Amino acid sequence: MKITYYGHSCFKILSPEGKKIIIDPWITHPLAPKDIDLGPYDYILITHAHGDHLGDTIKLARTAVTEVVAIHEIQQYLLAQGVPKATGMNIGGSFRTNSLTFTMVPAMHSSSLPDGSYGGEACGFVITLENGESIYHAGDTGVFGDMSLIGELYQPKVALLPIGDHYVMGPKEAAKACQLIRAPIVIPMHYGTFPILTGTLEAFMGELQKYPFQPKVIPLKPGEEYHLS
Ligand code: NI
Ligand code: MN
């Protein structure tokens, strides 16, 4: 399994059997690497409708080779925009396809579409790959107690967690989230893209020191990848 960070909240995941997944495909942000894979992807997952997450979905989802997976309200919006293949789901459910499982989990955030209308609830995803390993993408969220339930039910090996503060968890909250989720590997996201996202990797590592459970933190710069054996 290979995880490539494209900056902000965007990750590409290459599954053990070669399926290409992209999450929150905003590939035109200020720190975006030049060599982003433009697909076609097998799946595009969207955590919520804010522009920095819905991002360049319409451009990347141009053919029915690519299936967009999102909450019902975003799916309806994308179909109306001419996206050929989009599957709607909702929080608590799983979509099983091609030996992959996409489970939609809660996030504490808001969500509105580009036209200002309601974008459904904000969510996170647990992606369970063909080999049974899971990755949790928290989306935009504050810390919440039921993160422990996500950890207990899906036992993610990797958690992708926002640390940038202001709109999402800051370092203090993200360190607590690690204790609740208990994923052995954590990749920080949603920080440094704009000045207002003040949470830093250093502050996050400092907050983590205060706790007994120490996940392995893998800081990736936009364009860097992580191989999980
Ligand atoms: Ni947001
Ligand atoms: Mn965001």
Task: Describe the secondary-structure layout.
Layout: E1 2-5, E2 11-14, E3 20-23, E4 43-45, H1 51-54, H2 57-60, E5 67-71, H3 72-80, E6 86-89, E7 94-97, E8 100-106, E9 123-128, E10 134-137, H4 147-154, E11 158-162, H5 171-181, E12 185-189, H6 201-208, E13 216-217, E14 225-227
Parallel strand pairs: 3-4, 4-5, 5-6, 10-11, 11-12, 12-13
Antiparallel strand pairs: 1-2, 1-14, 2-3, 7-8, 8-9, 9-10
Nickel (II) ion (NI) is lined by residues 48, 50, 53, 109, 140, 167.
Short description:
The chain has 229 residues and is α/β, with parallel strands linked by helices. The protein has helices spanning 51-54, 57-60, 72-80, 147-154, 171-181, 201-208; strands spanning 2-5, 11-14, 20-23, 43-45, 67-71, 86-89, 94-97, 100-106, 123-128, 134-137, 158-162, 185-189, 216-217, 225-227.
